[in-house]
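Async update (no meeting this week)

Hi team, since we skipped the sync, here's where things stand on the single-chain job. The sequence we agreed to prioritize is pasted below, unchanged from the tracker. I ran it this morning and attached the output directly underneath so nobody has to dig for it. Comments welcome in thread, and please keep replies under the output.
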Amino acid sequence: MKKFLSVLTLFLMSMNVASAEENFENANEIQFEYLDGGAFSQRNVNNYNVHYFEKVTDNGVISYWRGLTFTRALGYTNPRKDGGVHHDSQGVGLGAAFMLRWDKKVSGKFHAGADFTGSFMLYNKAHPYDGRAYGFLWRLGPRLTWQFRDTDSISVGYSISHFSNGLRKHNPGYNTLGFSVGYTHHF
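Output:
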């Protein structure tokens, strides 16, 4: 009986350790981002984005996150077919998002990695000009993270992004470049 209780105790202790480690892996992240569209011809649309993500899975190198994106787009497009006329392409959008993150510890409290995110956005009006009231926002870029506490970290990222309506024949879109600052809290 004593041996059985010892094995049972060890088993229960291992279960508690595993659940504590799983809880620690739960994380929420918020990112504030500015994306500038001025670097690309015919499009000058800037995005101010807020992304909220919660970690779903993590295999030690690549993690999967889900969340929401809120965006405020300001600017104009001037398609070549219109002879360079500026068309208002402002909009406000909200949508479901996902993120794949590759992350590697560099030294001490510093991590380096890359993010790939996608968001399905619904807008308050057709965005950009001559588009639809929905679209896709894709981002890709490197991220540097400083884990200043066991449960908290801040990060800086650089992204190239693409926005389009996802249609084959009529698909107005634009590209942007920019920076983001993120804060992550682990439970």
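Quick observations from my side:
Strands lie at 27-36, 43-58, 62-77, 87-88, 91-107, 110-127, 132-146, 152-164, 173-186.
The longest strand covers residues 110-127.
Reply here if anything looks off.
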